[in-house]
Please model this.
Amino acid sequence: MIIDVAVPVRVPRSFHYLIDPETAKTLSLGSLVKVSFRNRPTHAFVLGFPETTDVDQSKLKSVEGVIVASPLFDEKMLKFLTWVSEYYCHPLGEVIAAAIPKQSWTAPKRKPKEESRCVEGLIPVSANRHDLTEEQKIAVAKILDKSDKRPVLLHGVTGSGKTEVYMQVLDSVLQEGRGAIILVPEIALTPQLLGRFSDRFPGQVAILHSDLTPGERFAQWERLRHGTARVVVGARSAIFAPVKNLGLVVVDEEHESSFKQEDSLRYHARDIAIVRAGMEEAKVVLGSATPSLESYSNTLNGRYQYVTLKERVQKRALPTTTFVDLKDTTQLVSAEAPWLSIPLFEKIKKVLGDKQQVLLYLNRLGFAHFLFCHDCGHTWRCKNCDVALTYYRNPPSLRCHYCGAHKAPPSNCEACEGTSLESIGVGTEQVEKTLTELLPNARIARMDRSAIKNRKDLESLLNRIAHREVDIAIGTQMIAKGHDFPGIALVGVLLADASLNLPDFRAQERTFQIITQVSGRAGRAEIAGEVVIQTLNPEHPVLLAASQNRSDDFYKQELDLRKQFLFPPFQRLAM
Ligand code: ADP
Ligand code: ZN
Model:
């Protein structure tokens, strides 16, 4: 008999082998066999048993053995993976290998241990159902409405209770006997969010994120494959999870760029979520306070339904925002810290006096932006990447943020031997140091890629913030994402211009999103929230729209520009 298999190699086609009919009987689509490919043993995914082949049969090799007979994927999943393979021009064998945890085909005989590390109970969460607000009720009803099959964009301001909407929709979906995939950005996969889902749906939720060991990942996968867990909450790769009878796919914070995988199989989890849901007749909900231009424009052209939550729950006010013009040097606390204005500093002190918390956002790591020589103007750049090296003081080093190369900071200029080296620009490390000097009694924590190395660091810091063991949290984007902390009364954006000047056609969109998201961390409980934005451009329309919660204006302006300059969503760009 002939067997058609996909091999994980960079060749865009499947391959035929011979197999004896007795063995073939034990196999099906999705089984895993061993073959010899280019004289090397490799595993191969079974796609089918064709009646004929256009290859000379005497030249076909035989399958060398069976690795896993019981199917790792079914026909529906194969159809989806084939679509992904064709759309992203990536060989099917590699797509399948990327989609299915290695453990299921490398150590299939080992029974998965129920290694589930405790994620609950770290941060106080309430598993209670909330009585929905009127807006939330309308949103749930529209999402569950079977007469309209289009994906729903749920555009809800920060703190409007989108997660509660997802959970009540999920409740109905589960009652119909169907399953669900909840995709969230990696950084949002904290005990806070996981606790909300697993407390509400005990025993039914599988979790997939990048910090699981292969054994843990496999265990979660198997719970889904056998139907013991019917919901997966996970980062982008969870879109491939073997959820049975899929009825719902939620993409939370759908605007997040982390849904795009940028190496090997390059896919966008949000986009393929829509494809998979379409194939399995599941409903899709894309949720965000700051939707991507792509999704927003799909509501204008009628491809998606549009549902909004314009108010925060319990009529909490959105924070009030004031601007500080950093060009006005009379407003600065000192010349050494041109990133700290008197108005912001006064507000920080007031909030600390009231025993509330402060969050400061700066999208720059390290101590300073870069080092330069005052005599000749030389700057230090990465030998591999030709980008400026970032200057760190603790421990002293010059580091490349692209490739990770680092070296000790020089005492002399490498070009002119001069000794007057200066650092320019400010990073989170410097903000931490200066504030510690100015406010010696405040408990200050830093939240960025160099302070937070792994999930454990992140969880313990979020815990300390939740338990009010931190007065001031300083951070990069990491701090802006989805966290729900009731004690944050003040958010300071130290330099709003940094992201506006990135050489990227999405720079304005990203700025709008980050300003809106970071502002949204303020005032999430009884206390009112306040936001101070320090900038060199206090009249910038993007900053104004974000601070005044005029998202419709922003989308209109930005779509006009995209159209004029032939950028997505009006044109496609491919790398
Ligand atoms: P979003 O994701 O839209 O920013 P969340 O879902 O995190 O908002 O909700 C913000 C807070 O409001 C959470 O603490 C949540 O438990 C609470 N919440 C959600 N819906 C309601 C409601 N209908 N009544 C009271 N509290 C609610
Ligand atoms: Zn480099």
Remarks:
- The pocket of zinc ion (ligand 2) is lined by residues 382, 384-385, 400, 402-403, 405 (CB under 6 Å).
